[in-house]
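Take a look at the protein record below and flag anything odd:
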Amino acid sequence: MALKVKYGGKVRDTDKEEEKPQKKFCESVAYAVKDAIGKSPDFFRISASFLYINESTGEHRYRVNVMRAFTNGLGMPDRVKMTDSYFVSTDGDGKIVDSNPPLVKKYG
């Protein structure tokens, strides 16, 4: 049974061979970004979404969002906020070749 997955704002069928590699790379791209920028003490979640393949370069484009949990005065988490967002390009093997903004160590 085919799954319907949202890629780049469009719902697509996962049975299409050309889309399977992008889905499997989403997790590895997210972890690579997390390794590059570091993990903040209030880290909540990181997610990567496949956007498209650049036909001229063959690079795969992703958007990676980093969410952090902020606490109230009592030390309890009361809100989650997207604090960092990156547009990442990878080669066909999922290795990051470019990022906007650049990936620099921000957290411990």
